[in-house]
Design brief:
Layout lengths: L2 E3 L6 E3 L1 E4 L19 H13 L4 E3 L8 H13 L4 E6 L14 H15 L4 E6 L8 H13 L3 E7 L3 H14 L4 E5 L11 H10 L2 E2 L25 H4 L10 H16 L4 H10 L7 E3 L4 H8 L8 H10 L2
Parallel strand pairs: 3-4, 3-10, 4-5, 5-6, 6-7, 7-8, 8-9
Antiparallel strand pairs: 1-2
Helix pairs in contact: 1-2, 2-3, 3-4
Amino acid sequence: MDYRRLGPTSLELSRIGLGGGNFGGVGSAPELFGQGESEEEAFALMDAAWAAGVNFFDTAASYGGGRSETWVGRWRRDRGADVILSTKVYWSVIGDPDDRGLARDRVLRENAASLERLGVDRVQMYLTHEPDAATPILETLETLDRLVSEGKVEAIGASNVTSEQLLEALEASGAHGLARYAWVQNELNLLAPDAQDDVRNICRRESLGFTPFSPLAGGWLTGKYVSGAPYPAGSRMTLRPEPYEQLVAFETFRALSAFRTIADELETEPATLALAWLLAQPDVTAVVVGPRNPEQLRSALAALDLELDEVRTDELASLFR
């Protein structure tokens, strides 16, 4: 396993991080709470990841309606595993559309609940899951700064932010002497290789970490979706297709066919190649993966041994531009 320092923090993350978004649900979608991986299946994945040297486990209060945090915490206690815990705040744990956001009292309440479910006094990585237009960024940052000062959070990060939102937060932290976002966790994968260029430019300039999620675009980069064929049972396109419906196009399938050809030439799986492309990006600290079973985790871990030079990474990105 390879490890890399997370931005300006002292945290050394495994280049592959285990995402718990499918533990007891599918992300934060209330209608899918209770689906996804069972506790037994989640434990098997965490066992396999820990055995492979993965030390960075990513979850969120709302994943699976709190099941993900609870199971990660229970596994950690059962195994005595000293993993780096990353969790997030914004969405409701019970699926209440009126209970969300980053207001002061809510963040304090949600942080306390997350620590209890995880069974810890402090979490190393704490992210705002979404920006909150209804709450001034200064109020959110003052609250996060308080959590850092009280020792309940080691470092703070931002997820799903635009470059404008990131700059606003960094400027507010600097102007008021508050804890600063140390990394960004946005979606990035080969299907939209340039989507995060503006955010990544800021991260490089400000020496922030970058930990992309959805590296396989809901399974699209695994080769499981074929033009004209039904979607596999239990796949994201059968459970939660909305974020990916724009991909159902002739151009996408043509690019994926060319991508599969390159994977075959390199004698590797498309999923492994897609992850290797991300790992080859010099500003990527670690990639958050969400395997459904240990075999899929092995495909992700194989990307650590697949080194791609700049010519190859550019060739792959050009397929999807």
